[in-house]
Specification:
Blueprint (H helix, E strand, L loop, with lengths): L12 E5 L2 H13 L3 E6 L8 H7 L3 E4 L13 E4 L8 H8 L4 E2 L1 H8 L4 E5 L4 H14 L4 E5 L5 H7 L5 E5 L2 H5 L8 E4 L7 H4 L2 H9 L10 E5 L3 H4 L8 E6 L6 E6 L2 E6 L2 E7 L9 H15 L3 H10 L8 E5 L5 E4 L6 H8 L6 E5 L12 H7 E6 L4 H10 L4 E4 L3 H11 L5 E4 L12 H15 L4
Parallel strand pairs: 1-2, 1-4, 2-3, 4-5, 6-8, 6-9, 7-8, 9-10, 10-11, 11-12, 16-20, 17-18, 17-20, 18-19
Antiparallel strand pairs: 12-13, 13-14, 15-16
Helix pairs in contact: 1-6, 4-6, 5-11, 5-12, 16-17
């Protein structure tokens, strides 16, 4: 079965694997288009509250197991939840029977009247996607931000109008399950080894990411990171117009940084966008800034809208998010999303001066030795809390940090940071640990940090 249009779904037998938000949404959409839909989820029925809602619409739902006889030669299409591995017994059987296995992203591209800007990469997707959406919105246009960022893409695609644009954050899990998906502008931020338990090999991971480009043509655009060798190696396979971005060197077409300033260049036309000193985003987020500039310029956004948003955008919540600057010039950043040492290393590299670091959380049994060198270079004072407080304090001692403190909670950590900080200091929450020892989520941890920062700003 070739799935090329909405009409192809009518009276087709389609299996949707996995309920949750995306499975429920796509089941409703396919049912609306006249498909014979069966939804299957391995969770027990009492863990599938969506079942009754779908059954009222006439959609069959099977919970508690994956019956192998659900897949046979009469099935036309399988739509899987992105997180379900390809080792699943039903997916393996579908592949053997040459039944297409897709994710809802594929269907979104069929039903959307709006063009799509697709963003993927190992790091920085959410910040870049959000930034692109904000710039397009400021330009007076009509972006719909969706996908892996939290809103089901197919649901938004169903309602999208021709004059709008879908700004879609896309994971490798979603892209692996695409066949004809074609974004008008495709942004690849970077590729690092990740999710290899799911993909089984780095080659499969790269192939999944590169599906972003495989259906583009000369009318479309590809935006690549010039400093990522894996991204550049894909150029020969890309048929669309290629634009680059770089934090280190000048590019012929795209955006780059030189002399502390950001430039846009398209052949012989070069425009200075703004200085790095004018924006809140730091470090690795500068790649996200450049990618957003290229994508929005290719979509036709004017420079003033780009400048306005970049000067005011404080980052996605909990991802090296600027919080505030006090009257005596102490600057606070919330990087609660940094739930492992590598993320904290990346955060520390964003700042030229040493910071007052607040870290700690769930003890997963790791040693934290990889933090020793980054601590030597980038940490002025260390404040720790949570299960790993003593471990991290010892790492700080080995790194030669003169003052390391253990406190009871994030509130006390902020209070201590205020007492230690001087004019021009940066206070950074970048825990290097998961939050579940003291919080329900990294979001809760970050919000409590920000509340404490505001509370003690004027002496508590």
């Amino acid at each position: 079965m070739e799935v090329n249009s909405v009409e192809n779904y009518e009276e087709k037998r389609i299996i949707v694997l996995g309920l949750a938000k995306s499975g429920t949404t796509i089941a409703k959409i396919l049912h609306r288009f006249g498909a014979d839909v069966t939804v299957n989820d391995a969770k027990p029925e009492d863990k599938c509250p969506e079942k009754k809602e779908l059954e009222k619409l006439g959609i069959k739902v099977i919970c508690g197991r994956h019956p192998e006889d659900l897949i046979d030669e009469n099935v036309d299409l399988v739509v899987k939840n992105p997180g379900i591995p390809y080792s699943n017994i039903l997916i393996e059987k579908a592949v053997r029977l040459n039944i297409p296995v897709i994710t809802e992203v594929e269907i979104a591209s069929k039903i959307s009247k709006a063009p799509i800007i697709g963003i993927t990469g190992s790091n920085g997707k959410t910040t870049t996607t959000t930034l692109i959406g904000e710039i397009i919105k400021k330009a007076g246009l009509a972006p719909i931000v969706a996908g892996n960022i939290g809103t089901v893409l197919s649901e938004e695609a169903l309602l999208a109008k021709e004059e709008q644009v879908l700004v879609a954050e896309l994971s490798s899990f979603q892209l692996k399950g695409t066949i004809n998906f074609r974004p008008h502008i495709a942004v690849l931020l970077n590729i690092y080894p990740a999710h290899l338990d799911y993909h089984q090999s780095i080659e499969d991971y790269i192939d999944s990411k590169s599906k972003l480009f495989c259906n583009q043509n000369a009318e479309d655009y590809a935006v690549l990171n010039a400093e990522c060798e894996t991204c550049i190696n894909l150029k020969s396979k890309i048929k669309s117009q290629i634009y680059l971005f770089s934090t280190k060197s000048k590019v012929e077409k795209g955006a780059y940084i030189e002399g502390g300033k950001i430039f846009w260049v398209d052949g012989t036309k070069q425009v200075e966008i703004l200085s790095l000193s004018e924006i809140f985003l730091k470090g690795a987020h500068l790649e996200n800034v450049l990618a957003a500039i290229v994508a929005t310029r290719l979509y036709g956004v004017d420079f003033e809208a780009i400048r306005y948003v970049l000067r005011n955008f404080k980052g996605v919540e909990h991802r090296l998010e600027y919080v505030l600057t006090t009257n005596n010039n102490i600057i606070f950043y919330n990087d609660s999303k940094a739930t492992n040492p590598q993320a904290t290393i990346t955060a520390l590299s964003a700042f030229e001066q040493s910071v007052i670091l607040i870290a700690g959380g769930l003890d997963r049994g790791i040693s934290f030795e990889e933090l020793i060198e980054p601590f030597k270079k980038g940490v002025k004072f260390l404040i720790t809390f949570g299960q790993t407080a003593e471990k991290l304090k010892e790492i700080g001692r080995i790194a030669g940090i003169d003052q390391c403190f253990v406190v009871d909670n994030v509130n006390e950590a902020v209070k201590s940071a205020y007492s230690l900080a001087n004019n021009g200091d940066i206070v950074l929450l970048s825990p290097a640990c998961a939050s579940w020892d003291m919080f329900t989520s990294f979001e809760e941890r970050g919000r409590m940090f920000k509340e404490a920062v505001h509370k003690y700003k004027n002496g508590g």
